[in-house]
Give the backbone structure.
Amino acid sequence: MTARAWFGIALAALLLGGCGTSTVKSTRHTPLVQETRALPQSQLLDLGVIALEPGLKPKEDDEGARDDTPVTIRNAEGYYLANELRGAIEASAGWGTVRLLPSTAPVMDVYVSGRILQSDGETLELEIEARDSAGQRWFRREYKEVASKYAYERREAIGREPFAGLFNRIANDLLEYRRGLDGAELEKLRTISELRFAADFAPESFAGHLREGRSGQREIVRLPARDDPTLARIRTMRERDYQYIDTLQQYYDNFSGRMEEPYFIWRSQRYDEALAARELKQQSLLSTVGGVAAVIAGVALASQSRSSAGQIGGIAAVGAGAVMVQSGLQKRSEAKLHEAALEELGNSLAADLKPRVVELEDRTVTLTGNVNAQYDQWRALLREIYRTERGEI
């Protein structure tokens, strides 16, 4: 290979090291569809959103980077994002009461559950499943949205969550499915929910009213009398259960309110850190590869050239290539600092998530990390109240 050819390689390598890329993202988001038809109370389905699972396996993005968000942050996100979804579903005005639930233990007409597949400030990807009280799955789908920097820089101006469009799409799909059910199907679901709750509290009276098939779907076998006094007591217990769940909803709303600002800042900074880390990684690779190529080309140019000018050019290429290699290594070091900054941000957010106390009618309950256990204790207490009122205790 001629000296001119080697010089061309060195020049190309130097130019390669200076190249960069940019990404433009859309700021559009899916609008929320709202129900315009008034439904009778007997056809309004109560819906419960379960806290999203954090996801067991970290997912790699398009660049091959793995999501290393601490588990404490993922758990907090599971409640926060689920509450954001609950708000979108409630705003669609097509349901009865929409609540965030600690688990599937509370009896509701429709359950929405899912898990976090990716959440790094830039991209949010969720797997969502909707299932009704009869055990029928409505759908299971994956939803993904990429936020733009505008969504973080102009939050107050646009007045919405960076991933509001994703939550709107889920709410729209739920409303579309529910619109496909006729009035009789809606009323049937509400009846099945009531009989499920009754069978849990008074199995001796209501266990035979429902039949569950092998596939897990429930069917009504027979209906209780409208003036059944036992059913009247059961309905009173269910109202008390709803009151407790509504108290939990206040806790979740307060939790989301406290988390909103630090979480928004954390996601915004993580967004910046992710973009910077990816850009630095790309620049580091380009600088390092380009620098090595320039060194090789420079050495060849200096050794093969018979003229002093060619040798000087080769030496210059070697020097420039060495600088590029050093720059690439330095950028890799800077990328590591960004990764460490992400971990520090995650720890600072986790420190803000503390247990809260909820005041009930006759006692104070401390809600720590195990809300499910607290609800189980409440249900046990509710059964005790029911048996006491029936004179069984």
